[in-house]
Amino acid sequence: MSSVTFETQRTALADVVAIPVTPFAEDGTVDQGAHRALLRRLLDGGITTLTPNGNTGEFYALTPEERRLVTELTMDEVGDRAVVLVGVGHDVPTAVASAEHAREAGAQMVMVHQPVHPYVSQRGWVDYHRSIAEAVPELGVVPYIRNAQLTGERLAELADACPNVIGVKYAVPDAARFAAFARDAGLERFVWVAGLAEPYAPSYFSAGATGFTSGLVNVAPAVSLNMIEALRSGDFPAAMKVWEQIRRFEELRAANGSANNVTVVKEALASLGLCLRDVRAPSKQLPEEERSEVAAIVAGWSI
């Protein structure tokens, strides 16, 4: 185990980590043709790290069979053009089975969704992730952290037991807390991915992140790549120019507790004729008056 360095995976996390949408057909099933076309568009746009079954992919609204389908479609379409980080979660046996399926499908990493159980102890968090990481020692494992109570010491404890825990998707909306957490866990030990996408990327990069997740990238890969290029070169004014460009789009996604996070992305894709705007409960389509605003924002980007 100690001989595995996960360099390819670590490099892939220090980038734009795309969270593809899961498009639905008229009959409500996964639209496999549209799904493949959207994946190709990301790859052709220069994206090299993909997370199928992420929150922007409506992970919690998919059946177990659909989650496997999304993983398999992604692996088949991607081939060797990108590194794939498959989202897994729910109860431990389900998460382990999903991680093992990801390995069989050829994925190189899994992202473990923040446990949604209302009662999460810090040591229980370690146990949960350890069960998954130990089941797939060959895969890089990336915890998705949204729990502001969790300490960096617990992450270090997890990685002591499981050396394949190599990166973190940190999504607590507090840049100072992120800076402290990363240093308590080990700034150089993990690849730190800003898990709240482009709006938080500049502040998190200033504190040590080297990658960020993106749902917006489904719509405009070039915009996300412009931001990471600016951040990599330390050009924060240029990064903030991109931030200003996407601000309203991301505000619409974040409003009302991120109620329309996926909806706005799918509305933008629908305005470009790339997939239907359909989302599953508990998401809901945008009202008419907001649809035109999303289309206008997207029309102003260089796509």
UniProtKB/TrEMBL annotation:
The keyword Zinc does not apply. Its EC number is 4.1.3.3, 4.2.1.41, 4.3.3.7. One of its GO terms (molecular function) is N-acetylneuraminate lyase activity. It is an enzyme of class 4 (lyase). Signal peptide: none annotated. CDD domains: DHDPS-like (cd00408). Belongs to the DapA family. This is Dihydrodipicolinate synthase family protein. It comes from Streptomyces gottesmaniae.
